[in-house]
Design goal:
Layout: E1 2-3, E2 8-11, E3 17-21, E4 27-31, E5 40-47, E6 52-55, E7 65-68, E8 70-76, E9 84-90, E10 96-105, E11 127-131, E12 135-140, E13 169-176, H1 184-191, H2 197-203, E14 205-211, E15 217-221, E16 228-236, E17 241-244, E18 248-250, H3 268-287, H4 292-315, H5 320-345, H6 348-369, H7 381-398, H8 403-424, H9 433-443, E19 450-451, H10 458-482, H11 492-505, H12 517-532
Parallel strand pairs: 1-3, 2-4, 15-19
Antiparallel strand pairs: 3-10, 4-9, 5-8, 5-10, 6-7, 6-9, 11-12, 12-15, 13-14, 13-16, 16-17, 16-18
Helix pairs in contact: 3-4, 3-8, 3-10, 4-5, 4-6, 6-7, 6-8, 6-9, 8-10
């Protein structure tokens, strides 16, 4: 149900109300008949993309108001107080859909933001969120212990014992909105699940626990276009009581931008690049071992393209489109170089090491894509990269005795994953972050501090099934077709040299009498010229007398 802003909004504790706000007419939100055992009321309002102003007074001041899409205020109740009032309005000239709720807490419940020293409000229960294309940063003010009405609040710096706020614990929760859904009503219905303590525990994903010794800020990997809600529950272990901060949401993108907004995140250059890669990958998935040079080109393209993109991103300030074009050129050169190396050197082991390394990188990335990647020990870059490299190198080492099996597995798995990356350019899927998070960690020195949890919903299960089906089909088809064939084609350069020597010494071989290349080209051009020559008119023809 909607409240259409006649100026007064009557609320009940613990009940959500949807309200349409505008810039000119503030809404007065009132709660009456508050029970005497309630000591604190946290009032909060949420909108999808337009900022809302919430304040204690009709004329907001910096120390008595908050502005944002997810904002709340703490009302510390005085003895005999049974009514609370707040004021709401939007900063947008048009009407803004929002949802509001007030949540009561008792004297033993901790007070979120009660020991704020950083932000403007004296007691600040808000979570402050910033995002980039790489990571999301949330921070909040420390909480204080609860106390009775009319009493002085406990000191925030009186000591660090069990009778002070230092005993409090902070549980950080994450909740994913449905994929590919940016509607306001979906956000309003789901943010309710992350506003109260019991509902947060039932629906959210607990990411970590902070003590008072830890800094009250956390980093997460950014998921542009995917709605995410964060909240923090502060817990008092002595009284076993809890309270929730104000939930905050983000899509890690802008609704207002004309280009690269939340509805169209993938650039045209990205779509072209990965669509072309997917076509080559699909061919390699089913025919990679039979068309050995194409397989080498595909793997060389990926290997050299990845490292070249990392290099130019690290050392230059070129735009994304320019870097992607240069990466494609470098990938083509790398693929041709690997093909040329095989033609000239004929070393199966060298080529299979590169191919195994590509498969190993994908396998290792998949391992760290699981919850294992969020273990605190892997926050250390040295530990992470040593472990990652060891897992990646394990693949070519394990298959060193059966290179054909390794090549078929690599072409099937890597080729089918190229199709998944192309799908991710058009439809959101978390599977793209298997490799994207690795790229972020290589390019950004501080990405190691970010938690990389991603949603895994119906869309992801369908696309995962497509990946598995393609990989299994490609590997099976190649294994059945190649079981009676030689493991690898013969060394092309040595074969060519032997054939040339045979033709030059064996005069009985018809190929020995093949004219030189220059003469053959000349004869072919004469033949083409005769084809286009006008036919002579019919008439009497006298045979030549010899």
């Amino acid at each position: 149900s909607f409240f259409f802003n006649p100026g007064l909004l009557e609320l009940s504790l613990g009940k959500f109300r949807n309200v349409l706000l505008n810039q000119t007419n503030p809404v007065e939100a009132v709660i009456r008949n508050i029970a005497s055992n309630v000591t604190v009321v946290i009032f909060q309002v949420h909108a999808q993309q337009s900022d809302v102003v919430i304040s204690f007074d009709k004329n907001p001041s910096v120390n008595s108001s908050g502005t944002g899409v997810d904002k709340g205020l703490v009302s510390i109740l005085q003895p005999q107080q049974s009514v609370c009032t707040w004021y709401l309005r939007s900063l947008d000239a048009s009407q803004v859909l929002s949802t509001a709720i007030s949540i009561p807490y008792m004297e033993k419940d901790p007070i979120p933001g009660g020991c704020n020293l950083e932000f403007d409000l004296e007691v600040d229960p808000n979570i402050y969120l910033d995002y980039t294309l790489v990571d999301i940063h949330i921070k909040f003010a420390p909480a204080n212990l609860g106390y009775t009405r009319g009493a002085n609040p406990p000191s925030c710096d009186s000591g660090t014992g069990q009778n002070s706020r230092w005993r409090l614990r902070y549980d950080v929760y994450q909740y994913f909105l449905p994929e590919n859904d940016l509607s306001e009503m979906v956000l309003m219905s789901h943010i309710r699940k992350m506003s109260e303590v019991q509902s947060i525990k039932a629906n959210g994903i607990k990411m970590l626990t902070l003590t008072t010794d830890d800094k009250t800020n956390v980093y997460f990997s950014s998921l542009p276009g995917q709605g995410v809600i964060y909240n923090v529950i502060v817990w008092d272990p002595l009284w076993n009581t809890s309270a929730a901060y104000i939930p905050v949401h983000t899509y890690a993108c802008s609704f207002a931008d004309l280009v690269d907004n939340c509805s169209s995140l993938s650039k045209l250059s990205t779509k072209v690049f990965f669509t072309a890669l997917a076509i080559l990958g699909l061919f390699t998935c089913f025919f990679g071992h039979r068309f050995w040079k194409t397989d080498l080109f595909f793997m060389g393209f990926i290997f050299s393209g990845f490292f070249f993109f990392v290099f130019i991103t690290r050392v230059t300030g070129l735009g994304y489109d320019v870097r992607l074009i240069l990466t494609a050129v470098a990938g083509i050169i790398g693929g041709l170089f690997l093909v040329a190396s095989w033609w000239r050197l004929g070393s199966v082991l060298l080529c299979m090491f590169i191919i195994g390394l590509v498969l190993g990188f994908l396998f290792s990335s998949t391992v760290f894509f699981t919850p294992l990647g969020d273990y605190r020990v892997f926050r250390d870059n040295v530990v992470f990269w040593v472990t990652f490299s060891s897992v990646a190198l394990m693949i070519p080492v394990l298959f060193v005795g059966c290179p054909r099996i390794l090549n078929i597995l690599a072409s099937g798995i890597v080729g089918s994953y190229a199709v998944i990356l192309a799908i991710a350019c058009y439809v959101y899927t978390s599977l793209a972050y298997i490799t994207l998070d690795l790229l972020r960690r290589v390019l950004n020195d501080y990405f190691s501090r970010a938690y990389t949890n991603v949603p895994f919903q119906t869309n992801d299960f369908i696309i995962l099934s497509v990946w598995i089906m393609l990989a299994l089909s490609g590997v099976t088809v190649q294994l059945r077709r190649e079981r009676s064939e030689v493991p690898f084609p013969p060394h092309p350069y040595l074969t060519w040299k032997r054939e040339r020597e045979r033709r030059s010494t064996n005069v009985l071989d018809p190929s020995h009498h093949i004219p030189p290349l220059r003469e053959r080209i000349h004869n072919k051009l004469l033949h083409i010229k005769e084809f286009f020559q006008k036919e002579q008119p019919a008439g009497e023809r006298t045979p030549l007398l010899l």
